[in-house]
Amino acid sequence: MTIINIQHLTKDYGNNKGIFDVSLKIEKGEVFGFLGPNGAGKTTTIRHLLGFIKPQSGKATILNLDCWNQPKEIQKHLGYLPAEIAFPENMTGTQLILHAAKMRGLGDMTKANQLIEMFDLDPSTQIKRMSKGMKQKVGIVCAFMHDPQILILDEPTTGLDPLMQSMFVKLIHQEKNKGKSILMSSHLFEEIEGTCDSIAMIKQGKIISVMNSQDFKHFSKNTFIIMFKKRSDFESILKENFVIKKNDMETLQVTVEIEDKQINELIRSLSKREVTMFREMKNSLEDHFMSFYKGENQEHV
Ligand SMILES: Nc1ncnc2c1ncn2[C@@H]1O[C@H](COP(=O)(O)OP(=O)(O)OP(=O)(O)O)[C@@H](O)[C@H]1O
Question: Where do the ABC transporter domain residues begin and end (predicted)?
Fold first, then answer.
């Protein structure tokens, strides 16, 4: 069941700024990572989903409700964490959380209290005295406390220290296990790799790559180039239980793809042979990420 549906969404701010023909679908129970360099169009896309921006063309719907025309109905099912949180400075965290709960008609603060404990937040502090990370924690409490079916999180771990970032990853897993649908923008590779079922990459306002968990698996394979001294060793390795991606009789080189659990098997097998070169081929998801940020990957979808 599609929960968030963005179809051909365009907002042209001029000078090639904005978003252009963006289409994405997020299914029930899916954690969807939205990645892109600074100024790529992540927040602009997300603000359309919140009904803050009217599409120039195209459409965004959540639960089949139109994001521009029916934002109030959508709000009931949604938790939103903005990239830049503008809180009223003169309140304490507790006052703000209670105010946000009242606006939603939320009486049960059990989940809010669980989140406060989980993120080790002292909400009694005045917001103007809070660090960036503390404010972010207040934002997380407000986004999750009403147990919404859908979560839209714009760079959710900004300002959080590594311990709190890992706590956040834990929270995402808990929510996913409850069948929540989550759209999350991020720059952090570990956060995305550890949580997301699918990833879309946006650059200069256009979606340039969409990957699902099957594609991630491809990236998690280990690929090695191995060169042998003797032809007999080269020939015999081809008969073993490894996936041989390439072999070259002239140079006596093989390219082997293995799962993590086969590493010992490969080492044992190679120790019986004379190896003249052993090199890992970089094809990890992180490498793919970095090449995308540097502009080396431009596979259009
Ligand atoms: N109201 C506006 N008027 C003109 N240009 C805008 C407006 N809002 C955003 N932009 C431009 O549109 C582009 C996309 O901005 P957006 O905030 O969506 O990027 P982002 O991917 O969220 O970036 P970051 O990772 O830096 O938060 C940027 O070039 C930005 O300057």
Answer: 4-229
Pocket flag, ligand 1, residue 214 (CB < 6 Å): no
Q: 82: Cβ below 6 Å to ligand 1?
A: no
Domain 222-282: assigned CATH number: 3.30.70.100
DSSP code of 126? Answer: B
Tell me the pLDDT of the chain (301 aa) as tens digits.
999 999 999 999 999 999 999 999 999 999 999 998 889 999 999 999 999 999 999 999 999 999 999 999 999 999 999 998 888 888 999 999 999 999 999 999 999 999 999 999 999 999 999 999 999 999 999 999 999 999 999 999 999 999 999 999 999 999 999 999 999 998 777 788 778 999 999 999 999 989 887 777 666 678 899 999 999 999 999 999 899 989 999 999 999 988 888 889 999 999 999 999 999 876 566 777 777 777 655 544 3
Give the predicted TM-score (pTM) of the model: 0.81
Q: Which atom of ligand 1 is nearest to the CA of 187?
A: 25
- 9: which strand partners? 22
Distance 13 CA to ligand 1 centre (A): 9
Residue nearest to atom 3 of ligand 1 (CA): 13
Cβ of 165 below 6 Å from ligand 1: no
Q: What is the CA radius of gyration of the chain?
A: 24
Distance 147 CA to ligand 1 centre (A): 29
Q: What tokens appear for 52 in the block?
A: 């803050």
- Ligand 1 proximity of 13 Cβ (cutoff 6 Å): yes
* Burial of 46 per CB tally in 10 Å (0-12, 13-18, 19+): buried
Q: Where are the domains of the chain?
A: 2-77+149-217, 222-282
**ipTM of the complex in this document:** 0.97
- Superfamily designation of domain 2-77+149-217: P-loop containing nucleotide triphosphate hydrolases (3.40.50.300)
Atom of ligand 1 nearest to the CA of 83: 27
Q: Is the shortest distance between the CB of 41 and ligand 1 below 6 Å?
A: yes
